[in-house]
């Protein structure tokens, strides 16, 4: 079913054909029930158009909003999704640190300096004087003297190009952590630190990833599940999960008590929704609002209080807008199939033909 709510009309259930809220609805006082999502303008339009009708919040939209809140929280705890590596029985001997150049291979300043150093030392070894080398290479004598005194090209990597502070320095520990967690997409990393306040563009993050992080080893082991996959497992009935997904979900919940609490709240809401126990809604809202460690779930619970009557009716009465949502999803599918292929007349015929 489509996840995009209809923005122009609300869905109604009544004795006659459904109509948009407003003047046309006021001319039909026989409408008894209006099934809608929880958008404010839908509620206002239903109240103006049919004040005598009972408004019912659609259960699919309630479940969809809960899923969005759950996914936000799972994403915040994505570090808990990686299984804990097994500790080796015997500690491994620490390898001797290898001397690393302050400039990695591939940096144009470093490569140019290495090339000049090799050329100057080769000419000096061949018997040329320093003044002769300066004339041949078009350099000043002082430059030749500095290169001749440097036994390795790394000794020339000094000055303004080395250890210069950048805006990215404060975010490098986070980038290193995310790299170890398995996120190797530079654009994704840039979007994450941008949400944390990084003021610069994507190029700096791309350069840091390609020059520094690409050379770092990643942890060996299976790739952790994504936040969306874990959210889907939490929102699925345990009996409907495949055995492999059930095992991965159990391992993820074992690593994070907060995710375990989130799963318990989601399942209790699912039981209330599927069995139409709307009388339990106040207790669930109170329990979810008391969880300070689950901010997104607390926000969802408090948002339900803005429309308590319609939500309670949606969790109690059998009415829903599933049939209308199915038609909306079908029309959107036809519209996307026909985009750029034909005109409105053919689109209209297909909509009427498959009605």
Tell me the layout of helices and strands:
Blueprint (H helix, E strand, L loop, with lengths): L22 H4 L6 E4 L3 H10 L4 E4 L1 H18 L31 H18 L4 H8 L3 H9 L22 H9 L5 H10 L6 H10 L15 H9 L7 H13 L1 H18 L6 H9 L5 H10 L3 H7 L7 H17 L5 H10 L2
Parallel strand pairs: 1-2
Written overview of the protein:
By secondary structure, the chain is mostly helical. The chain is 53% helix and 2% strand. It has helices at residues 23-26, 40-49, 59-76, 108-125, 130-137, 141-149, 172-180, 186-195, 202-211, 227-235, 243-255, 257-274, 281-289, 295-304, 308-314, 322-338, 344-353, and strands at residues 33-36, 54-57. It has a two-stranded parallel ribbon. Helix 2 links the parallel strand 1 (33-36) and strand 2. Helix 3 packs antiparallel against helix 12, helix 5 (130-137) packs across helix 6 and helix 13 (281-289) packs antiparallel against helix 14 (295-304). The longest helix has 18 residues, at 59-76. The radius of gyration is 32 Å and the shape is elongated. The chain starts with 22 loop residues before the first helix and ends with a helix.
């Amino acid at each position: 079913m489509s996840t995009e709510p209809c923005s122009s009309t609300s869905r109604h259930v009544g004795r006659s054909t459904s109509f948009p809220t407003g003047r046309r609805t006021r001319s039909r006082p026989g409408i008894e029930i209006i099934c809608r999502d929880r958008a404010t303008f839908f509620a206002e339009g239903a109240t103006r158009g049919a004040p005598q009708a009972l408004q019912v919040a659609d259960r699919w939209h309630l479940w969809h909003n809960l899923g969005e809140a759950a996914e936000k929280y799972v994403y915040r705890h994505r570090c808990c999704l990686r299984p804990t590596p097994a500790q080796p029985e015997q500690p491994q001997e620490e390898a001797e640190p290898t001397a690393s150049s302050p400039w990695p291979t591939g940096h144009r300043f470093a490569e140019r300096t290495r090339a000049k150093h090799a050329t100057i030392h080769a000419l000096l070894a061949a018997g040329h004087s320093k003044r002769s080398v300066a004339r041949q290479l078009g350099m000043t004598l002082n430059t030749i003297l500095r290169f001749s005194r440097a036994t390795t090209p790394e000794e020339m990597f000094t000055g303004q190009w080395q250890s210069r502070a950048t805006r990215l320095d404060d975010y490098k520990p986070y980038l290193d952590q995310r790299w170890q967690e398995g996120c190797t997409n530079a654009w994704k990393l840039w979007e994450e630190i941008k949400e944390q306040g990084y003021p610069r563009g994507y190029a700096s993050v791309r350069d840091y990833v390609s020059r520094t992080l690409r050379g770092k080893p990643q942890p060996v082991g299976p790739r952790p599940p994504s936040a969306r996959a874990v959210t889907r497992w939490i929102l699925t009935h345990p009996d409907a999960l495949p055995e492999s997904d059930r095992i991965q979900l159990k391992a993820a919940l074992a690593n994070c008590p907060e995710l375990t609490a989130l799963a318990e709240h989601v399942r209790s809401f699912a039981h209330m929704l599927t069995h139409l126990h709307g009388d339990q809604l106040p207790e669930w809202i109170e329990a979810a609002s008391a969880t300070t460690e689950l901010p997104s779930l607390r926000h969802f619970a408090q948002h339900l209080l803005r429309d308590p009557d319609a939500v309670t009716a949606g969790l109690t009465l059998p009415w829903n807008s599933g049939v209308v949502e199915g038609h909306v999803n079908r029309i959107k599918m036809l519209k996307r199939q026909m985009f750029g292929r034909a005109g409105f007349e053919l689109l209209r015929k297909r909509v009427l033909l498959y009605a």
